[in-house]
Each structure stands twice: as C-alpha cells, then as structure tokens.
Amino acid sequence: MSIDPSKTAVVLIEYQNDFASEGGALHGAVAGVMESTSMLDNTRRLVEQARAAGATIVHAPITFKAGYGEIADHPYGILKGVVDSTAFVKGSWGAEIVDELAPQEGDIVVEGKRGLDTFATTNLDFILRARGITTIALGGFLTNCCVESTMRSGYEKGYQVITLADCVAATSEEEHDNAIRFDFPMFSQPMSADEFAGTLAGQAARS
Known about the structure:
The chain is α/β, with parallel strands linked by helices. Helix content is about 40%, strand content about 15%. Helix 3 runs parallel beside helix 8 and helix 6 (about 145-155) packs parallel to helix 7.
C-alpha cells in the first residue's frame, strides 16, 4: 500500500476522558482492553511520528448537551449506555480530549459528532476532501462501534482506509479481537501503529 503523508489523515475517535482516563464514566468498561493493547501509548507515539512525517491529525470527539436532547427520547443499545452513564456532556471534564493527545497547532477538531459514524453528523468528509486527503488511518473507541462505523463509511466514500489495530479498544477482548480479525480486513488495511508510522516515515524520506 502506497501512503503519501501529505494526503493522509490520522482520525482520532473519542479519545476523551470518559473513555480514556481513570475516573471517566465509561473508563471501567474499556480499561482492560486499553491496558492489553497499550493503545493510549501507541496512539500518542504514532501521532507524534505522523505529525513529523507531514500527516494531518484529526480529533473526533463526541459531545451532547446536558439532557441529551440530540438523542431519541427512548435510546437503546450503545447510546442508552452513554445516557445512563451521563457520559460526554459538553463542557464537562469527561468530554475533554485526554491530555496525552491534546490538539496541537495545525490539528483539526471535528465538531458535531453525535452518533457512531464520524462522517454522519460532521463535516469530516468536506474537511478531508478540501485538504486533498485520500488515506485515513483510524484509532479510538470502540473497536467494534464508532471505529468500525467510520471505517465502513470511509471505505464506501472511496478513501484508502487503514485501521490501527493496537490503537483501538472495546468493552471486551472478544469483541475487540472479533472486529479486528473478521470485520476490519473487509473494509480496511489493518496495521499496527509501528507499521503505519514506518510506512509514513519511509515515504516522507523518499519525497
């Protein structure tokens, strides 16, 4: 796979305190897989390397107003879990992006994510196309939910999609492993953080 850093975006999905930090509303559900994959450290290192290679860093947090008026009156499934745990309330500590991945100058923070697919309620597609991005590399939460939903949409929209297999986490090892083993290869090229960073660095050196 040929990857041009200048046409590549690393999309960081929901690296927010409610998922990624001790004390976060949903951290307990994902802490085990986070630890087993070292996903936060892997992502932090990768983002530094991707910036150095010339890739665009895109942050995609999910937020809701207090009371969750953007969600149906009787939510079910994953969004019911968000409401029941009072996670990702705009302006709260839990909705903030984790310190380890705080946006830097030149990064993009996508506004308007309210559901699973990062493309669905944001201007992500417009931003990427305006910048000439053709490759997206995805990391974040949950492996089998928002990451997978965004992966499928990116594939359908014609992007070259890479999923960073050790920069994602789910609520169980079984769900995490199943998504990476069976679903990710259908709609993306799964790579480790080191593999992807090496590819970017190699291409940047040749440019």
